[in-house]
Amino acid sequence: MSKAPEEEHPVKAFGWAARDSSGHLSPFNFSRRETGEEDVRFKVLYCGICHTDLHIIKNEWGFSHYPVVPGHEIVGEVTEIGSKVKKVKVGDKVGVGCLVGACHSCENCKNDLESYCPSLIYSYASTYHDGTRTYGGYSDSMVANERYVVRFPDSLPLDAGAPLLCAGITVYSPLKYFGLAEPGKHVGIVGLGGLGHVAVKFAKAFGAKVTVISTSPSKKNEALQHLGADSFLVSKDQDQMEAARGTLDGIIDTVSAVHSILPFLGLLKSHGKLVLVGIPDKPLELPVFPIIMGRKTVAGSSIGGMKETQEMIDFAGQHNITAEIEVIPMDYVNKAMERLAKNDVRYRFVIDIGNSLAASKP
């Protein structure tokens, strides 16, 4: 007979959880494991709200197990470390992103690509090595093996830096891997949301020329004036799209709704790359002719491994790259989810766990 969540482990914990596919979040008592010799425990101060959180609490991908404590953009202050921990010390500012475990023996793990391990363990709604469920960052504390803990540079604010642990690495990794993180490259960013706005900042910091591609003409000033993009295309405007045909070295497509990729293939130069990082809930059509005739690549990319995630955070600290955020108290989270479903956020909600979670206890 399985134990109740608050009795599974010796350390009491408190957070907010969804109990069913309604996705409604409410106060939840559970427990965390003791600090193992390679573990880092930290007090959670902020946690970003990712679109994945919304998908999982509503079981929109079909594999959720309840109760779910979401949150994988988790930052805070170290309160305890295991005897073998070398990376951080008590009092350090740290973060945990999407991963808390992997097999550490497969080819991907050996190449610092834990994110592609067949046995990877997510920060929440996953099963840990000991058979217990993982719970995320909408909670007062977090414990993780030091391999999955990221050191935060002093120059990076915790609240606006938190979303980089998912949104940041999701765009940084493909820019680097597909050769688009170089001065002089011309990169397109499709969609100006939580991922897209951070992608613009990273691509510009790499020295690339950046074109934002959006269905919303109203986002033009935001893209050009505030985020520093070089040009803006309305994807529904045939004349604009035709004028830009064959001008881009690569495109990062951040859109998670079903859409046609044909117009974007036309924007690519020969040998150009269209990289999908959004996850639509239905398959997209693959137009083969323009891919073959331009020797173009349609690819996908997930988050990065832990070595690259630390590299990304350090780069963000050096270049003052943060997410545009709206900080909210814990008890606003259900309203925030409603707004997120309508894309009514600019561009990332971040929960002020440190100052509001305790007050939400019943």
TrEMBL record:
Its cofactor is Zn(2+). GO terms for biological process: lignin biosynthetic process. InterPro entries: ADH-like_C, ADH-like_N, ADH_Zn_CS, CAD-like, ER, GroES-like_sf, NAD(P)-bd_dom_sf. It comes from the Eukaryota. Keywords: Metal-binding, Oxidoreductase, Zinc. Residues 23-351 form the Enoyl reductase (ER) domain. GO terms for molecular function: oxidoreductase activity, acting on the CH-OH group of donors, NAD or NADP as acceptor; zinc ion binding. Belongs to the zinc-containing alcohol dehydrogenase family. This is Probable mannitol dehydrogenase.
